[in-house]
Amino acid sequence: MTPTDSNPRFDGRTAQRYAEEYLHHLQDAVQLRLRADVKVGTALSGGLDSGSIVHLIDGLMKARGVADDDHQQTFSAVFRTVPEALHCDESAFIERAVAPLCARSNRTEIPVDQVPEEYVRMIYAMDTPPASSHMSGWFTYKLVARTDVKVMLDGQGADEQLAGYLRYLPNYLAHLRSDVLREFVAAAAIPGAGVYRTLGLVSNAARRLNMEAGLNLLLRARGTQLQTTLPLNEVLARDVYRGLTGLLHYSDRTSMHFSIECRVPFMDVRLVEFLARVPAPYKIHNGWTKYIARLAMQGRLDPAITWRRDKMGFPCPNDYWFQGPLRDWFCSEISRSELVRDICPTFRVHEALVRGMPMDRLMRYLNLALWHRVFFEGEAPA
Q1: CATH of the domain at 115
Q2: Are residues 176 and 280 in the same domain?
Q3: Which of 75, 185, 206, 261 could bond 211 through an S-S bridge, CB–CB 3.0 to 4.6 Å?
């Protein structure tokens, strides 16, 4: 896969052509992955990627004349009943995605008292300490295992190819040759984009003044991992080859723990090669990430999903869990870990919580502690 370094001015007709070709490749990738002698389901969040898959499956099933009851089943983790976890609940978007389809929506709420035991099982299944809790995906597949569905389609890989994360915004803006100010202003509509778009604009100016190398040295000195030297498509290609492998590992380990096969249409080789050829201005445009994917699904998915700006994607209320009902378990597991003490002798989890250390960083200590306990202290789960 060789990504294009072309960075042309955006053209509406070209965007529509790319969107149609994208839809053709994705539909064919989904159709190919529906081949099975067992029932196939879909992991559904409230976002564009999994929503696109369930929509395409519905159309393919109807074209085959499949009975309504056998069209498809979707599976989701939701958080409807705990007020502190409502910010992670995507029930409304899930409902919008399945309402017009012939689909059975299966949903599960994660019981907080089951998290510690299932967390240890998750670490054992992963074989390696992951970066997050993965509880939404874990309980989603646990729900699948209670049904007769044996194959699942998942939306992994779309963000890394269509620039769905905020971290891609600086590289996009830094390498634009035209419409830089317009794209900078439009990006203000993306939630949380402030620092990223500012860095992109500054980097664009630095490139024009031959000061980009100095800017990136300054960024490294300040400890940030954001670097704007590479154009967007090269960053995406790097993430497909490197970062995405970890996510696919986690997905595979989770699904296979429950004896479920996970298939990823967005990793179809034809789709991957096509998206590598799509220039950056058609992936991010006018304040929208994953632009051609949204354009392709316009009029097909509910507009609230197609043109949804906030990104969640199987979130978990980790702050609520580990600073609330599971705080004692969380702190105990980290504090008693010999490995954590050896690596970070001055680290004190209670003090870190008081200082407000981000939970995504704290969970890495928990995952490391549990990984060591499971694989080196002989406490593998039953």
Answers
A1: 3.40.50.620
A2: no
A3: 206
Cα 66 to Cα 60: distance, rounded to the nearest angstrom: 9
Name the residue among 19, 105, 93 with its Cα closest to residue 303.
Answer: 93
Total structural domains in the chain? Answer: 3
Token pair, residue 214, equals 């100095």
- Are residue 174 and residue 251 in the same domain, yes or no? no
Predicted TM-score of the model (pTM): 0.92
Encoding tokens for residue 221? 């000195």
DSSP state of 100: T
Amino acid symbol at 27: Q
Quick: pLDDT tens for 323-342: 999 999 999 999 999 999 99
**Angstrom distance (rounded) from CA 69 to CA 347:** 55
Alpha-carbon distance values, 180 to 7, 46, 175, 184, 229 (Å):
12, 31, 9, 6, 17
Instruction: Give the DSSP letter string of 282-307.
Output: GTSBTTBSSHHHHHHHBTTB-HHHHT
177 and 293 inside one domain? no
Place of tokens 């498509």: 233
Among residues 79, 33, 80, 77, the alpha carbon closest in space to that of 54 is found at: 33
Is residue 360 one of the residues assigned to a domain?
A: yes
**Which pLDDT does position 223 carry in this prediction?**
67
SS3 256: helix
Q: What is the DSSP string of 317-373?
A: -HHHHHHTTTHHHHHHHHHT-HHHHHH-TT--HHHHHHHT--HHHHHHHHHHHHHHH
Burial of 119-148, coded b for 16+ CB within 10 Å and e otherwise, reads: bbbbbbbbeebbebbbbbbbbbbbbbeeee
pLDDT of residue 5: 86
